User: Fold these one by one.
Assistant:
Number 1:
Amino acid sequence: MASISEAFSSSWKAKDLEEGESIRLTIKGCKVHQFKDDAGNPTEKKLMVSFNEDDKDLVCNLTNAKEIAKSYGDDYEKWAGNPIKLYRTMTQYGADMVPCIRVIGPKSGKDAAPPPSFDDAPEPEAGDPGPTKDDDMPF
């Protein structure tokens, strides 16, 4: 049976990963793609990252491109053959928090796992009043 979701699954979307899930992929190559509006007028250019292990490309925003560049340099033509991890998290979009795909490279300075959820935060110790106005602030 043919489905719409299969016909339009050519790029990675947040719905492709469960919250907290990550996937390691090897970069196959990168190219700049000119997007167009419904009337066929050019709108914006985005970097498309393809992978050896999957037919889906990642439409790479500036945040993700900078994370990859921390590991492999600014020249995206030299990223091929290198591994990255994709993971799902949340980001601010207008007034809403929406799911998104983020990347982690070996030198991104982040843990290999997605950030912990609110539920993973430790409970405050009994009797701890929390921060007070007299607490030292690091800024």
Number 2:
Amino acid sequence: MSVDSARQISERFPAASASQLPTVVNMPYRLLQPDGSFAVSDVPGTLGGNATLRIYGRLDCESAVNALKRGYAKHRVFFADEEAAIAAGFRPCGRCMHAQHAVWKAGPQENGTYPWRITPKHPIVPE
């Protein structure tokens, strides 16, 4: 690139001054609590959920990301952790939380703990 063309580019696209640069704002995050209220946090939630279906899963869940195109964002809630999602009455997503979903789907067992309040309609019964 010649000196003239570099000068023309710099004249046409001057560097932005510090006052013109966007500022980073610490955005407060709203996390759903077990009692149904929202808490404001400086830290984003680790899990997302569908308030209508009462399902929680990873933030990068393929099903959730695809559902955003169909208006899912208005039903989306966020949780600080899995314990908060379970305490709020949500169940695990079968697409992104395979291990947790399998335990949930098996239903309450006599010898184990079962933290979910919502039980599956058709639990998998071992033969």
